[in-house]
Specification:
3 domains; 7 strands; single chain; alpha+beta; about 25% strand; three-stranded antiparallel sheet; four-stranded antiparallel sheet; 5 helices; about 40% helix; Immunoglobulin-like
Length: about 200
């Protein structure tokens, strides 16, 4: 009993100190949560400049630049790690084209730019057609400077022919028509069951 009474007296004597410690812990946790919330909000709202290879017009390999974020990318500068030439012309370095030689003041959310590189079936791996190259993007978004680097592998696109969009759509339409016929037969049978199955 004496032990319990001494504990209660010690607790009463140090209640102020205990309250200060608990308040400090609460404030520290709140500050950490606010910082995390602010960082998550910034990540959800920032610009995301994406550089990728894609096919256009069935067989032209292009370099695409898009802003997939929710804010504009400001003062965007792209650079390449090596010389890359357009469609086999040794005089047309894409490094010298406006996409890489100029600084873009603003790329809006959803903004898209593309540059034709070469036909998709060109054998790659020579000096004109590198097996891989890197694109560095340097831009500002929501008050922060972003530096990103993307490695592109055109050889992945050269070994396989591009998908034929018309053929793919025809197959999709044929599959949907077949599914529709099957559903019509099923509805018809169910209707017959309801009418005559009783």
């Amino acid at each position: 009993m004496e032990l319990l009474e001494s504990f209660v007296r010690a607790l009463n004597a140090n209640t102020g100190l205990l309250m200060v410690v608990l308040t400090f812990i609460y404030v520290a946790c709140t500050i950490l949560m606010l910082r995390q919330f602010k960082e998550q909000t910034w990540l959800a709202s920032r610009a995301y400049v994406v550089v990728r290879l894609a096919f256009r017009q069935k067989d032209m390999l292009t370099l695409e630049l898009t802003n997939d974020g929710r804010s504009p990318a400001e003062v965007l500068k792209l650079t390449l790690d090596r010389d890359v030439y357009q469609i086999g012309d040794t005089k047309k370095r894409i490094n010298d084209m406006p996409l890489f030689s100029e600084t873009y003041q603003t790329v809006p959310p959803g903004g898209r730019y593309f540059l034709i590189l070469w036909p998709g079936m060109v054998p790659l791996g020579s000096e004109l057609y590198p097996k891989e190259f890197r694109v560095k993007a340097n831009y500002r978004t929501l008050g922060r400077r972003i530096k990103e680097e993307t490695t592109l592998h055109p050889t992945l696109y050269a070994e396989y022919p591009p998908l034929n969009a018309e053929e793919s759509l025809e197959k999709l339409v044929a599959g949907l028509e077949q599914t529709n016929k099957g559903l019509e037969r099923m509805v018809s049978r169910f209707d017959q069951f309801l009418r005559y199955g009783k």
